[in-house]
Design goal:
With 227 residues, this protein is mainly α. The chain contains 9 helices and no strands.
Length: 227
């Protein structure tokens, strides 16, 4: 009889173990799917931000053209063929600006919904970069913020960081250096952002140049800006 109950206990233990294994497997699958979904959402957010940045740059360019044309129009003494041409161009630019503003509004709304879905705080990369330029000694980006800077920079500049990672296996810090170079941070600003000594920054850039197969005479900043 004791052997029977011992067998029952052994069977119950095995069943509990199987249930635990199955539960752990299902939990792992679910966690993996949630992680994949969140990463997909974050990727979409980054792409939206990149598009918004491009649209805002284009919007600023159109605004400059509008101001120029308005001045040219206002300088005309009498209404003429030139006046009508300017009015036509102004109308076209204003329509383009309205379209871009609508696109930006849609993307902004989409990102708000996506941010709520992931529960993560939105990182305004252009604003963060401006803050870094204005006060690099006191603005200290978090690991997540640096990740967003890297992703946004990669998207805006033809995935050059992805190419460098794939071809040369550049490190995370080297990617950060490339980002600051792409955003035209001066050497002095780079030193302040990384809280580095001139010698330390020179060594970091030297290692990056070596990894990229560049000779010592090559200007790393000029090289990266052309990528």
């Amino acid at each position: 009889m004791g052997e029977f109950w011992g067998f029952v206990d052994w069977g119950a233990g095995c069943l509990a173990l199987i249930v635990a294994v199955v539960f752990s497997f299902l939990l792992g699958v679910r966690t993996g799917r949630i992680r994949e979904r969140n990463e997909s959402v974050r990727s979409r957010i980054r792409q939206n931000k990149a598009n918004m940045y491009r649209y805002k740059q284009q919007l600023a360019s159109y605004q400059e053209q509008v101001v120029r044309l308005e001045r040219e129009r206002d300088s005309l003494v009498i209404r003429s063929e030139a006046y009508d041409r300017i009015e036509t161009e102004l109308t076209a630019y204003r329509q383009k600006m309205e379209q871009l503003e609508r696109e930006i509004l849609v993307l902004s709304g989409d990102n708000n919904l996506l941010d709520n879905a992931t529960g993560k705080v939105d990182v305004d990369v252009p604003k963060l970069l401006c803050a870094l330029k204005d006060d690099p000694l006191h603005v200290n980006p978090s690991k997540e913020e640096w990740a967003e800077i890297i992703s946004m920079t990669d998207l805006l500049f033809n995935n050059f960081l992805t190419d460098l990672r794939n071809k040369y296996s550049i490190t995370r810090h080297e990617q950060e250096i490339c980002c600051l170079i792409k955003w035209n941070f001066s050497r002095k600003e780079q030193l302040a952002v990384f809280n580095n000594t001139p010698d330390a920054l020179t060594k970091s850039k030297g290692r990056l140049k070596k990894r990229l197969g560049l000779d010592e005479k090559t200007d790393l900043d000029a090289y990266v800006r052309l990528l």
